[in-house]
Design goal:
The chain is an alpha/beta fold and 374 residues long. It folds into two domains: 2-175 and 341-373, Medium-chain alcohol dehydrogenases, catalytic domain (Quinone Oxidoreductase, Chain A, domain 1), CATH 3.90.180.10; 178-319, NAD(P)-binding Rossmann-like Domain (Rossmann fold). Helix content is 29%, strand content 27%. It has helices at residues 17-20, 49-56, 103-106, 114-122, 168-171, 177-188, 204-215, 228-236, 250-257, 272-280, 304-309, 324-336, 355-364; strands at 2-8, 23-30, 37-46, 65-66, 70-78, 90-93, 132-134, 137-141, 151-155, 159-161, 196-200, 220-225, 241-244, 262-267, 282-290, 313-316, 346-350, 369-373. The strands form three sheets. Strands 3, 5, 6, 9, 10, 17 and 18 form a seven-stranded mixed beta sheet that branches. Helix 10 links the parallel strand 14 (262-267) and strand 15 (282-290).
Length: 374
């Protein structure tokens, strides 16, 4: 079938993207779903930093590629050997199409599925093939989803059925920002009521983490960013304290309001300086969680002595250490109960032909989450 999609043909084009146009809106071909696959009509897709690093070349992807990995839509057709999904079902894709058989999947850690990770790096389905093409040239899939398009073919292993009453523009965020942010607090950090927690970086992931900390009964929730508008939003959403990371005394101020350091700090900015700050603001015996995704060359230096002598913990959190089929419905339930007001995180709703300008805003850091509505 012919579909309209946003195709990245060359990464690393200069900003502003409104001028260089790294994403071209094209009519391309999408093959029908094969065995174990489902055709989804994409209704909404969020714009994420992981999309941006594919566009700017920081984490290079094979091209041409249809970008986008955070989405919600409706089942339009099912392939052979598909179970649990019917035409008309509302779904959210996971950007890791776990195989269910590798060691990580067997251990209940599907986000770390090795075959899915290799497929995502190659821009293919988990079997190494693609479903997109134009004029005889294959087009790759971003993270097995390729969401910036009217339709997508996705493995049934990556899909989670959701309540049809949830608006698509909110449901889409549960495919990445919410599972990553909420999961980093609930699954990776295992926050307990009364603990103090610092969130460094207030994009969609960071604010989702902050909301999860509040919902979990954290004693003190401290928000950190370099954008004052985001800090204001964090306070409006319930943060007990908010600090600008550019302030020279930011670390000292956080340690002061947490009586010497927070029990937990979550870094969501994907920047070494942010992770360094998150480590410095935790207390003796505290836990620092790195949930932001930097480029491959990023590194940090930390005190070996403090790690051992203060029994610190530094943990990575990919996709919020989530099991999507378990956690997405749980987090959606929290949203429906008013405990996760994710609807407050949408900065703009855009159309396909506005994507390049929207990524300029993402680079500027002036937005929380922009949502493409189709």
């Amino acid at each position: 079938m012919k579909i309209k999609a946003a195709v990245l043909r060359d990464s690393g084009k200069p900003q502003p993207y409104a001028n260089s146009r790294p994403l071209s809106i094209e009519e391309i071909e999408l093959d029908p779903p094969g065995r174990g696959e489902v055709l989804i009509q994409i209704k909404a897709a969020g714009l994420c930093h992981s999309d941006l690093v594919a566009i700017n070349g920081e984490r290079a992807k094979p091209t041409p590629m249809v970008i986008g990995h955070e989405a919600a839509g409706v089942v339009a057709e099912v392939g052979t050997d598909v179970s649990g999904f019917e035409v008309g079902d509302h779904v959210v894709p996971s950007y890791v199409s776990s195989c269910g058989r590798c060691e990580m999947c067997r251990e209940g850690r599907p986000a770390l599925c090795l075959p899915a990770s290799k497929a995502n790096m190659a821009g293919t389905m988990i079997d190494g093939t693609t479903r997109l093409h134009k004029d005889g040239t294959r087009i790759f899939h971003h993270s097995g989803v390729a969401a910036f398009a009217e339709f997508a073919v996705i493995s049934q292993n990556a899909l989670v059925k959701i309540d049809a009453s949830v608006p698509f523009e909110q449901a889409a965020l549960f495919g990445c920002a919410v599972v990553t942010g909420v999961g980093s607090v609930v699954n990776t950090a295992n926050v307990r009521p009364g603990q103090s927690i610092v969130i460094v970086g207030l994009g969609g992931v960071g604010l989702s983490a902050m909301l999860a900390a509040i919902a979990s009964g954290a004693g003190r929730v401290i928000a950190v960013d370099i954008n004052d508008d985001k800090l204001l939003l964090a306070r409006q959403l319930g943060a007990h304290h908010a600090f600008n990371a550019k302030a020279g005394n930011c670390v000292e101020s956080i340690r002061a309001v947490t009586d010497g350091g927070a029990h937990i700090a979550i870094e969501t900015a994907g920047a070494p300086m942010a992770l360094d700050m998150a480590y410095k603001v935790t207390c003796r015996g505290g836990t620092t969680v790195a949930a932001g995704m930097p480029g491959p060359e990023a590194s940090i230096t930390l005190s070996h002595l403090s790690l051992v002598g203060e029994e610190r913990t530094l943990k990575g959190s990919y996709m919020g250490s989530c099991v999507p089929s378990r956690d997405i419905p749980r987090y959606l339930g929290m949203f429906q109960d008013g405990k996760l007001p994710i609807d407050r995180l949408t900065s703009h709703q855009i159309e396909l032909d506005e994507l390049n300008e929207a990524f300029d805003r993402l680079v500027e850091g002036s937005v929380v989450r922009q949502v493409l509505v189709l």
